[in-house]
Amino acid sequence: MGPPTRHGHGGLPAPGAAGAAGLYREHRGDRPVTGLIYTHSHGDHFGGSHGVLPHGHAPVSVLAPAGFLEHAVAENVYAGGAMTRRAVYMYGAELDKGPAGQIGAGLGMTTSKGTITLVPPTLDITRTGQEETLDGVRIVFQMTPGTEAPSEMNFHFPDRRALCMAENATHNMHNILTLRGAVVRDTRVWAHYLGETITLFGDRTEVAFASHHWPTWGRERVVEHLAGRRDMWAYLHDQTLRMTSQGLTGLEIAERMELPPAVANRWANRGYYGSVSHNVKAIYQRYMCWFDGNPAHLWEHPPVEQAKRFAADYGGVPALVAKGEEYAAAGDLRFAATLLGHAVFAAAPDDTAARQALAAVYDKLGYGAENGTWRNFYLMGAQELRGTIAHTALETSNPEMTMALTVDMLIDSLAVRVDGPRAWDEKLTMAWNVTDEGRTWHLLLSNGALTHRSTGPEESGPAQAADLTLTLTKRQLLAVLAGKGLDGVRVQGDPQVLATLSGLLDTADPDFNLVTP
Fold it and tell me: What is the gyration radius of the CA atoms in the chain, in angstroms?
């Protein structure tokens, strides 16, 4: 029953981090780790923590931006399974490495594999200007929430004139909305914080470095780099809204948007990871939602039903394939993909002609893409069309990640797995008295929806007893949800209630399609 710990954002897990630490020590000596700083809440920036701080290591200070722990695990609770699947496409995880397959992910070569670990923070950074000293090294922090991650911070080493920019100023265009899925980021806030960074640290910095990429040396070059990033995000934000006010849709704005030459010609602003096209659409979505205002798009048929009608109007699937191939031969790969996509969704499962034709178009689109994530999506799609179904393993046994989940998140992770129609006629109540939290969580399954509230000792609880009441610690609760039984748990009521709820939960399928029905 327990929540899978899924990692939609690939990263540097423990084995990779241990290898990096080993390489450092090989050239710099066996120096001890005396502190750890998390720049932000994405798995590739904390997942290797036990690679540098092995289990049993002497305690050290672990610093993180406020809200880090909640955001580090929350993304995995709500849509982590779908994000993980799409991340396989975004990073080209199952493509062969080489010129015809996976050659990079835009931000770097690709994500690494292994176990995601988490050493909990010991000190939260809560405000800009906060200063801490680790092992004699002074560090001044700048909070940047809502930029590249919900919880993120830059920090400056004043005695060394060095500035860490987290993932806020890399050497390519970043994502406002990643193709794997996420909450839309805020370009307005991102631009603001980059300007603040220049004001706070610009005249006191000789080297700036950000996650994933190489440093920038020299005060003037650092300021120029940060200003170029600031202006890029501000321009995309403001011009998208200007054109939105003129009546253009996200798709139309993405076609028209051009960055100023001085901004576009900076290599650090090239669209190798994020792109002008999908970032503009994300900004539009943040303010205007998925709907473009055209009533024709308000209640469209889903893909298979729409495809059947296209095929019928074009004279059948073979005719639709032929027309798509005509557009491909003429160089209009985008519309060829549209028509052939309909052909794939309208064709019989054993009809391979449409799939092969669309795979060939995706190959060309992938090989022609400057953006690494676009290339990977196209080539992974072509691979699926040729019969190789993507697979992802969902990690379900990471105790550090599951312990970091709040009880509310644990309940939410169950709620989003309830098969609503099967649960329409079920009604059950539970109370979880979690002793080490000092609160009781009251769960109600009604009309296919699992809702909850919590009360403390001083608050009044529900008037009537629950069908099942469990008194236990949080660790025991995790064991119960993992199917390890009720040993050591105080039980009042009917234990079968747990089995009933468990039987109504979906389980994730590691094999999945994205481009075929």
Answer: 26
- At 209, give phi and psi (nearest 5°): -140, 145
Query: Residue 491: which residues within 8 A CB-CB, separation 6 or more?
Result: 468, 469, 470
Q: What is the three-state SS of 90-125?
A: HCCCCCCECCCCECCCCCCCCCECCCCCCCCCCEEE
Reading the block at residue 292, the tokens are 């473009």
| Closest by Cα among 396, 480, 475, 479 to 430 | 480
Q: Which helix (H) or strand (E) holds 491?
A: strand 490-493
- Looking at residue 414, its pLDDT comes to 95
Residue 298: burial class (beta carbons within 10 Å; 0-12, 13-18, 19+): exposed
Tokens for 273, please give them. 């990871």
Q: Which residues contact 256 (CB under 8 A, 6 or more apart)?
A: 243, 248
Using an 8 Å Cβ cutoff, are 386 and 394 in contact? no
Distance CA 488, CA 495 (A): 14
Question: What is the distance between the alpha carbons of residues 29 and 13, in angstroms, rounded to a whole number?
Answer: 23
Which segments in the chain show pLDDT lower than 50? Answer: 3-11, 394, 396
Q: Count Cβ atoms within 10 A of the Cβ of residue 56 and give its class: 0-12 exposed, 13-18 middle, 19 or more buried.
A: exposed
Q: In the numeric block, which tokens belong to residue 472?
A: 């236990």
HSE-up (13 A, CA, CB side) for residue 34: 8
Distance CA(230)–CA(168), nearest Å, equals 10
Q: Is 462 helix (H, G, I), strand (E, B) or coil?
A: coil
Neighbour count for residue 467 (Cβ, 10 Å): 19
pTM of the predicted model as reported, rounded to 2 decimal places: 0.92
Q: Confirm if 36 and 62 have CB atoms less than 8 A apart.
A: yes
> What integer pLDDT is reported at residue 2 of this predicted model?
55
Q: Is the dihedral of CA 214, 220, 224, 227 positive or negative?
A: positive
| Distance of alpha carbon 50 from alpha carbon 13, whole angstroms | 8
What are the backbone dihedrals phi and psi of residue 242, each rounded to the nearest 5 degrees, phi first? -60, -45
Residue 454's pLDDT is 95
What count of residues does the chain have? 517
Strands 123-125 and 131-134: unpaired
State the CB neighbour count (10 A cutoff) for residue 218.
13
